[in-house]
Amino acid sequence: LYVSILFKIMKAKGTHEDTIEQMVRLLKEHLYSGKDLQLDEEKRIRVDDWEMDPDVQAEVTGIWHQVSTDNLQEVSDFPGYQANFLKLFGFGLEGVDYEADTEVDIPIPSIED
Hints:
The chain is an all-alpha fold. The chain is 45% helix and 0% strand. It is built from five helices and no strands. Helix 1 crosses helix 3 and helix 1 (2-13) packs across helix 5. The chain is flat.
């Protein structure tokens, strides 16, 4: 629920990023930017900075207290969240025939006995 609300807010603000986009930002803007690392008090790189923006969190909180089964589709981006989640695991991709027979026992040469 939180993520589906967050998706809608961040898309409206132009700051939404999928998991892969967030990883690209981690590498490009933090690890390999040539700049000093920006670390938090626990010495961690934070790529949830856009999500944790106080304005974003205030909007999430406001919607959180109003969301119901009846208005979920209007106040969140559940379809966008669901599509994104499925794609992370290889589902919901265009051009894939999910009904086709698939060989599941394929040896991996680098780990064969």
